[in-house]
Amino acid sequence: MRVRFAPSPTGALHIGGARTALFNWLLARGAGGRFVLRIEDTDRERSTPENVEQILDALRWLELDWDEGPVFQSEREPAHREAVTKLLETGRAYRSEATVEDVKAWKAEHGDERGYRGEDQGRGAVRLRVPDAGDTVLDDLVVGEVRSPNRSLDDLVIARADGTPLYNLAVAVDDLDAEITHVVRGNDHLTNTAKQLLIIAALDATPPRYAHLPLLHGPDGKKLSKRHGSASVQELRDGGYLPAAVRNYLALLGWGAGDDQTILSTQELIERFDIAHVQRNPARFDEQKLRWLNGRYMRQLSPAELTVLLEQFYGRGGLATAAAISADKLQTLADFWPLVGFIYDGPSDDPAARERWLDAPGTAILADLREALATVPEPFSVANVEVALAAVLERRGLKPSAVYQPLRVALAGRAVSPGIFETVALLGRQETLGRIDRALG
User: Fold this and answer.
1) Can you list the domains of the chain with their CATH numbers?
2) Annotated catalytic residue: which of 222, 226, 329, 399?
């Protein structure tokens, strides 16, 4: 099996493209085949080196390694021109100066349902001769059989008058030359497939098998866009998601493992992925579900593994203790600093939290807690802090939230933090008492 992923470098790698890359990669790895990376950079204005690097960077982050490439389509123009020459020499193609108006006039005479048929004028753009008889049949591995009556298809323009090959010709030739056995791509390419099959037939070659994947929609059923949240791989990375969790989630968009299992390791995905089980209907990308799944992956990390990832993500060291006390509350790496940043940067300022928890009764409780914490014996540990704070709780006979929330707001500036005993111990006696004093003041 030989598959290819062929993005156009006109921007960041979007989530739909990432899923296409993943499905191709899983097929290749599962079959012991080859995964070819081709960059379709024929749009000279939008295809920039920076955009190419964005795509490569995204694939590297997703850990989707390629076996061949990247092959740049722009560098293969001699092979494309050679194919055009062959088609002209065999009479499968001809040159025509027909304009859009000429095509419209021809259809007005012969019927709009008829595909345009031109005559060789010896100059102008190169058109493929499309036969009138029969159908061009696509036996798609996902969509099923798609028939296109040849008489309704225009003679296809495959090269400009200056000989520059056009997209469908280039794609067909590249797939043939790379000996691609399976073309797995988005459903938005389906309209191009009949054209590419005609070109391949005219070259007397055998086409690959095709599988057109359903497009991705947002939770509201509309086409996926930025309004639904992260739209590119880089945004997912910057949002603190883990590559393994993203691979797991993307694999489940439009494909089912045949049971209710949601968490699948990459090795399990490789072993179980089958293109025959890809659904025809659009799949829905829901970032909240991805957050949940990512949280499950986060909780599978050891404290040391989580610390390494957090320190890489934030570019700073010394996060081990804060990572340990916050691990059970994180769904992404990006959740960490909003939760524990107050430990390093000082309290934030949430007026609503201050108003609710640092009123007169709250400050009275806070004063009690300060006194208790000032006399905690050494070491100023989680266990000793818990004993001291529990004594205040028991003496006052209140719910834990009534006692601990004023302390949390004094230390964090808001009503959310990691466990209060762990937070106090991590801040240490001097810093804890100083923050309480400022809150009381």
Assistant:
1) 2-65+169-216 (3.40.50.620), 80-159 (3.90.800.10), 226-303 (1.10.1160.10), 304-345 (no CATH), 351-440 (1.10.10.350)
2) 226
